[in-house]
Design a protein that fits this description.
Length: about 425
């Protein structure tokens, strides 16, 4: 094919035109979100076209944007182009917009689900993505069959009886629910197998998990610290599985380090729920390394987005170490300025292996910090009580009916042995 023909073919490829709305005061944040949607759409494998932002206080009930606005957007689109909305749409809005514009429509959640689908390699990840898809589709199924009821009695639908659409919808829903149940059972099976492995292999090690925004460099850091071979790509959501390996902190101390799926702003709720088994690595961790791409202009917003997801999966209480990555790309003055704002953080380059020894050291210190904890040990566990006296500093003790209540100063490692009595 000649260069000219190639250009012509490329020009004819369908493009995705992006649409969003926001209150006038949120314009900057929304434009960033639309830029991120553009990256997501490109990761999904589509070309992007225009970016369209309408300033309005609330969405239009029928069409999401104003009527004139969407008419204008569509007038600039080629026939096969599609519309992608930065927010989730109500099923009736999807119906109205597609009727009005005759264009294919997707929303942000569908784009993320599609990327997950394309990147899922393990059977666990595939089942998790499918489950999230079913959850997303179930309330939207209504769309598909309404036309059967509307068209009943017309020649085109032949012998279809009253309410066929509704019956079909019920069947579809039952089918989807059945698939969801099957997916959940399969996931439970995988989760319990993993749990057995985990207890067997790792129970006596401390667990450290790398979390962070997608593309922050988590897998690169994991590989650099463990000689691992996790796939690294300049792509959103390259990793959808969790991988664990030993990390040597020096002084003969080993911990288990895990790499896992990245987060993003407005991460679809269903995905978080379906990826529970994968995210178990995060929930079980003794320390989280929250990795941040310091070269990203939005890194502060990303820190907040990651914290939101951590709260959603009930991991907000786990100690966190902020680790700023990709400092090889910054002038040292810029790095210094960020350091002033985040004095407790560690600054590294995972790909250039800068400052990784310092990171190991800080991780080691973090895992050894002592806390005052309340422990209630039943009277019959005399051995445990005397063991506690030997190990930590018992600051306070009180004899209760249920046992001995103590304030004890313990480091995390020792606390681990007494987890079941901690109150
Ligand atoms: N310049 C520079 N690039 C880096 C550094 N660390 C990682 N990268 C690049 O950042 C991109 C993303 O790296 P990954 O390790 O795949 O990021 P991730 O956080 O695992 O991403 P997901 O799994 O997609 O969430 C790749 O192109 C890496 O080469 C670094 O220290 N400096
Ligand atoms: Mg990764």
């Amino acid at each position: 094919m000649s260069q000219k023909e190639l250009i012509e073919v490329e020009e004819k490829l369908p493009k995705a035109h992006l649409v969003g709305i926001c209150a006038p005061k949120d314009e900057d944040a929304k434009l960033k979100s639309l830029q991120e949607l553009k990256l997501l759409v490109q990761t999904m494998g589509l070309e992007t076209g225009s970016i369209n932002l309408q300033k309005r206080d609330r969405p239009d009930r029928a069409l999401y944007t104003g009527k004139g606005f969407i008419e204008e957007v569509v007038s600039g689109m080629a026939e096969d182009d599609l519309l992608i909305y930065d927010n989730d749409l109500h099923p009736s809005q999807i119906r109205n917009i597609s009727k009005k514009t005759s264009k294919d429509i997707m929303d942000r959640t569908e784009v993320i689900l599609e990327i997950f689908k394309q990147h899922a390699r393990s059977s666990e990840a595939r089942i998790q993505v499918n489950l999230a898809r079913y959850e997303y589709e179930l309330p939207r199924l209504r769309n598909l069959w309404a036309h059967l009821d509307r068209e009943k009695g017309t020649a085109s639908t032949g012998g279809i009886s009253r309410g066929s659409g509704e019956k079909q919808l019920e069947l579809d829903k039952r089918y989807v629910r059945l698939k969801m149940r099957k997916a959940k059972l399969e996931l439970e099976k995988i989760a319990s197998q993993k749990e057995v492995q985990r207890q067997y292999r790792f129970s006596h090690f401390k667990k450290v998990c790398i979390v962070g925004y997608t593309n922050a460099g988590k897998s690169t850091l994991f590989n650099a610290l463990t000689d691992g071979k996790v796939l690294v790509e300049n792509k959103l959501f390259a990793t959808l599985e969790s991988t664990s390996s030993a990390l040597n902190l020096g002084k003969g101390r080993d911990v288990i380090l895990s790499d896992t799926v990245g987060f993003i702003s407005q991460l679809p709720h269903h995905l978080v729920a379906s990826f529970r088994a994968t995210l178990q690595e995060v929930v079980d961790a003794d320390l989280l390394l929250h990795l941040i791409d310091v070269t990203d202009a939005n890194f502060e917003q990303h820190i907040a987005d990651v914290e939101t997801v951590l709260a959603e999966i009930k991991a907000a209480e786990i100690p966190v170490l902020l680790v700023f990555n990709k400092i090889d790309m910054l002038f040292s003055e810029v790095t210094e300025a960020v350091k002033e704002t985040y004095p407790e953080a560690v600054f590294i380059s995972a790909s250039e292996k800068i400052n990784l020894d310092n990171l190991r050291e800080v991780v080691d210190q973090k895992l050894n910090i002592a806390h005052v904890v309340k422990i209630l040990v039943p009277h019959q566990e005399q051995k445990i009580i005397s063991h506690l006296f030997k190990l930590g500093v018992v600051l306070e003790k009180e004899y209760k009916d249920e046992g001995v209540l103590m304030d004890v100063l313990l480091n995390d490692e020792d606390l681990y042995q007494f987890k079941q009595w901690k109150i």
